[in-house]
Amino acid sequence: MEFINISTVIAVICYLAATASILSRLFHSSGPNHVRVLLLACFAIVPHTLVTTTQLFDAESINFSLPNVVTFVSLIITLLISAVAIKNKLNLLQPAAYGFAGIWLLITLLMPEVAHTPLAISKGAVITHITLSLISYCVLVIGCLYSFQVAYINMKLKSKNLAAVNHLPPLMLVEQQLFFILAIGTMALIATEISGFIFLEGLFNKDNAHKTVFSLIALAIYITILWGHYKQGWRGHRVLSLTVLATFILTLSYFGSRFVKEFLIN
Predict the structure, then answer these.
(1) CB 82 within 8 A of CB 42
(2) Count of C-beta atoms within a 10 Å radius of residue 163
(3) How far is 133 from 154, CA to CA, in rounded Å?
(4) Is pLDDT larger for residue 1 or for residue 91?
(5) Angular region, 54: left φ>0, alpha ψ -120 to 50, beta rest
(6) pTM of the model
(7) Could you give the count of Cα atoms lying within 13 Å of 229 in the half-sphere of its Cβ?
(8) Contact 18/98 with Cβ under 8 angstroms?
(9) Rounded to an integer, what distance in angstroms lies between the CA atom of residue 39 and that of residue 94?
(10) Structure confidence at residue 89 (pLDDT)
(11) Which residues pair with 118 in a beta bridge?
(12) pLDDT tens-digit map of 58-113
């Protein structure tokens, strides 16, 4: 336990330092020091990975409690954001990803222990479904963050405040990346729904009906966003609003009932 606590503290310090390093120079003419930010992120991701694997996996099962899942999701998002940031400037996305990861890990240090939620490793179909669902969720959350970056750059360009965006990538490039990410995430979510209907039972029973319905509603909104963009030319605030709505509904589907059961009831 002491190893986990020390690793968590190191990750928290490095994540928050990376966040502060970006925010302190976010509106500077030359922007943040990307090398320093990525180094701090790497110093955080290593202990974050150790903490995640230690808490999530054991010899016979996976501890799929809600805090462990959120820790794992935050790790995947920071890994993906950091990888993309090596070649692309993500000055608005990195503080959100790193800041959330750091604050969440700090919360886990203060949080009382949550009951073990085992998931047998031998259930390959279930593992496949859960893996697809986590991949789709992480990608779509990143897409949601991208939609905020697109909206911010668009707003500053319309107000002719070029100094605020001169250290950010061009609007058209970020917009192309946004819809590519949304397309990948939506396809992964479709695969998640198909695998659920094929491999899982009781998707519409009392305990799971709301999860299934919410995820299908979110999927329908994501498909609508992509259709509206490629067929009707949707962009800007409409895409931002729908993306935030879909991501919120998907979050409710994945984590809403588990939060109630693991924290409010127990």
Answers:
(1) yes
(2) 11
(3) 31
(4) 91
(5) alpha
(6) 0.86
(7) 21
(8) yes
(9) 13
(10) 83
(11) 63
(12) 666 677 777 888 999 999 999 999 999 998 888 889 999 999 999 999 998 887 76
| CATH class assigned to 1-121 | mainly alpha
* Exposure on the CB side of residue 223, measured as CA atoms within 13 A: 10
* SS3 labels along the chain: CHHHHHHHHHHHHHHHHHHHHHHCCCCCCCCCCHHHHHHHHHHHHHHHHHHHHHHHECCCEEECCHHHHHHHHHHHHHHHHHHHHCCCCCCCHHHHHHHHHHHHHHHHHHCCCCCCCEEECCCHHHHHHHHHHHHHHHHHHHHHHHHHHHHHHHHHHHCCCHHHCCCCCCHHHHHHHHHHHHHHHHHHHHHHHHHHHHHCCCCCCCCCHHHHHHHHHHHHHHHHHHHHHHHHCCCCHHHHHHHHHHHHHHHHHHHHHHHHHHHHHC
CATH 1.20.120 domain locations along the chain: 1-121
Distance, C-alpha 106 to centroid of its chain: 18
Structure tokens at 86: 């090596």
What would the mean pLDDT of 217-234 be, rounded to a whole number? 95
Burial category of 31 from C-beta neighbours within 10 Å (exposed 0-12, middle 13-18, buried 19 and up): middle
Q: Residue 56 to residues 68, 77, 109, 117: CA-CA distances in angstroms?
A: 6, 17, 16, 10
